[in-house]
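Hi V.,

You were right to ask for the full record rather than a summary. Here it is.
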Amino acid sequence: MHLSSIALSALLATTLGLAAPARLVVGLNQTCGGFAGTACTEGLTCVLDAFSTAGKCTPKASLGQVCGGTNNPACADNLSCSDNIKGVCKIKASDLGQTCGGFVGTGCNEGLTCVLDAFSSAGKCMTKSSLGQVCGGSSNAVCADGFSCSDKVKGVCKVKASDIGQSCGGFVGTGCKDGLTCVYDKFSTGGKCMAKVSLGQVCGGANNPACADGLSCSDNIKGVCKLEAAGLNQSCGGFAGKPCESGLACVLDQFSTAGKCVANVGFGKTCGGVNNPACAEGFVCSDKTKGVCQK
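Predicted structure:
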């Protein structure tokens, strides 16, 4: 076995109890690594040849260039590699209280958020906001994992809404995403998010799902979903047969199955048929087809 001069000197120094020689440092394009572990001068990185422990000293990679592993250069100072095996050099993330954003778009380390100064593209890395703390916009912190902001411009952090099949309710009152409803387990303050139910399906109470938009439950404890009654001058009838609120009647448009909800009429007013209003309470129509309201 043939030893290099550096390796031989190190072996002799160890045997004789002498101080080991300084590690050899070489320049650009010179051989590095290997048995002696030859280093590169400052600003250079040792890129190993494939299937070898030795390589060549090359300049460190700059922003956007390939990096990572032993067969690619390391990134220049203030840059970090996007992947340990093979990635690209990116701006090194800032720590708590350090500058972020700006022209180069410096990010923050995990768990931190870049809060920009007013009227500026740069700011400082701050801890993410927790439940009830201010969030939203570029001048406030984002919410920590598990929370969402109540408003995109400026709001407070709330518990992130759950998806279908996920837990809801409970001690923190976790809500469900739009279109879902929290169905509680019996004798519990928590439950699971389920899809809202449609026409004719069971609803009501804490242990049954709520009705889909446009429907209402026939009973607060346990009922079935029915069409939500229309208010004054709102559309009624039609294919779904939408009813009107109490005290209103659905007056159909001519040659149509749909119409508008109008107030019931009093004494002497025209009534009867599908194209005229009904009589108010205490009056009857003189004719089923078309008449007047009378006592």
